[in-house]
Amino acid sequence: MDSSRALSHSIDVPATSQGSSEEESLLSSIEGKLEAFCSSITIFRAPNEISIEDRNVFVPAKVSIGPFHHGAPHLESMENLKWCYLSAFLKNNPSVDLQYLVELVVKSESRLRKCYEEEFYGFDSDKFSQIMLLDCCFILELLLRFSKKRLRRRNDSVFTTPGLLFDLRCDLMLLENQIPYFLLKDVYENVQDPTEENMSLNDLTFRFFKTMVAGDRQLVYDNFMVEADHLLEMVHSCFLSTYPRVETNDKSKSKELPTASKLKTAGIKIKNARSSKSLLDIKFQNGVLEIPPLKVYQKTEVILRNLVAYEIHQSGSDRQVKSYINFMSHLLQSDQDVKILYRRKILNDQEDDEEQIIRNLKWMSERESLSGTYFAGIVQKLNEKPDRCVARWRKLRRTPVAIGIVAVLVVVVIFVAAFFSAFSVLQRRYK
User: Where is region (Disordered) located (predicted)?
Assistant: First the structure.
């Protein structure tokens, strides 16, 4: 999060004299200025600079969250479910009534509106507050039902319809489908029963999304425990590399990354980095390119594109996910390239279907320059000329002649070792 956002909390300025209209006016003025100063836009539309044909990757498939896609015809069927979830949420938390939650949201309306890139003049105060309250309670009830099975209903379509829960997870990771995290936290903390032991909201969020994020579980958990502006920011933090950026030699001419097939031909070994902590922990060392495994879904493009869109709006971002997509796009320029990474278990899916993986990665074909990107240093090292003897040996060891030479050498070594062993035995016997 930007350092400026750390100030975005409510500040109470006590009045020095009760009943004074002038002092109340001053108080209101100061609070208004503080809110304007501390608030910043955190939820954006997908930027136009992402030049892709299918902009539907930024549109939710099942449920709208927040005002951007509210009222879209293809999402109307989920609105009824939201009301059912709100009703259940109130029943499960009898200590707080609907009026209290409405007042809580209305009080935060101005701050909530300022989090969005658009003004939403089409939504009056009541409509905007209703959207915020309904979507907030839907998310909270969904997180609670996922972690606490006793809260689920037998006829709950979210948990009985194949694929729906996965689709909802993906929708909650879209750039344009977010609500401010502070609202989720405020409502959740105000409905908790202090006499019971409750999981934190961050813990509930981690449990819900952990299967969508590759990497070390402890690292993912730690990232979800950090405060964020919205759910997508939490998810994005889990994708960042834990390795330091490899510096480039500015004097060296920038070259592009060869495909996986060309790297294999050149004798570069491509290996599954099983012990990596993050999806972006790519490393090249001693002639071995290590790439963490990527689980390929039908919606892999949707998730990665939205993470990139989020990065573009962050000032000072090194755009690591964008660099990762570009890096992999250079590697995967043909079906054969995909097969090389699939056979090394770097690419996989739930059904272990090679052809399905190829189809789901067809979008990963654009080849933007890697110069200046997060992985530019690795690309430069891959293009450096290896030691001449090492290069010759890498090429030679793939030929039948090399295999024959190695076999002969092994036999010779064994024979010589056996000869000297027998010779030493005979020497001791006839001494």
Answer: 1-24
